[in-house]
Amino acid sequence: MTTTDGSSADATLAALRGLRQSRRFLPDQLQRADLERLLEVARWTGSAKNTQPWHLIVVTDPAVNAVLAGYGAFTQFLEGVAASIVVAVEGHGRSVAYDDGRLQERVMLAASVLGIGSGTAWFSDETAQQKVRDLLGIPAGLTPWSAIGLGYTDTTRPQASPQLSGRKPLEEISSWERFGGR
Ligand SMILES: Cc1cc2nc3c(=O)[nH]c(=O)nc-3n(C[C@H](O)[C@H](O)[C@H](O)COP(=O)(O)O)c2cc1C
After folding, report:
1. Is residue 116 within 8 Å of residue 30, measured between CB atoms?
2. Residues of the chain with pLDDT under 70
């Protein structure tokens, strides 16, 4: 991501600013080679003390993704992805949650570089996580908190409801030098 010339820096920043979660996908499959490239990016994600507390399960079977879609309040869009990557993590707490989020965001950024849309889908609770474990044969020591849905975005359909779009103004979420400083 090192960019020295101004116009490509602007283009890269615009792409980062504009990256949105995809939830509606075209029926096209993804190339296995592209999924492997995403796994390589994921593999090199940094983690606390380099613990790499994760195991990634790539699911390309539409029937299995349709089952995963039923394991959360907001996971329905997994029915219709070309592939998902279930991220199962070891441990609990702030550090592993950060590691998990960091990996997922990095995979989603990498997907966008390949022209692939993506979105995270959180499995509801421990019961749902156990169902994911059972479905995919994940050992008890790993917790599948969520999955990244992947595919070519169907740009003819809305990806999010209005309340999931837009952002708070910068003045509301940031300060200079001291809280509230302008
Ligand atoms: C921790 C976390 C959990 C999320 N879980 C879900 C989810 O289960 N299903 C979903 O459709 N979107 C999920 N999202 C996506 C958010 O709804 C989305 O990032 C937010 O509405 C902003 O939209 P944007 O990413 O398109 O800009 C999640 C995002 C985060 C950061």
Report:
1. yes
2. 1-4
For the record, the structure tokens of 84 come out as 């998902």
Candidates 122, 155, 159: which one to mutate for ligand 1, based on the most atoms within 8 Å of Cβ? Answer: 122
Cα-flanking dihedrals φ and ψ of residue 91, to 5°?
A: 100, 180
Does the Cβ of 120 fall within 6 Å of ligand 1? yes
The residue whose C-alpha atom lies closest to atom 29 belonging to ligand 1 is 120
Going from the C-alpha of 156 to that of each of 10, 22, 25, 76, 89, the distances in angstroms are 27, 12, 10, 19, 35
Whole-prediction pTM: 0.95
CA distances from 127 to 37, 116, 132, 137, 148 (A): 32, 31, 9, 15, 19
Q: Answer yes or no: is the C-beta of 117 below 6 A from any ligand 1 atom.
A: no
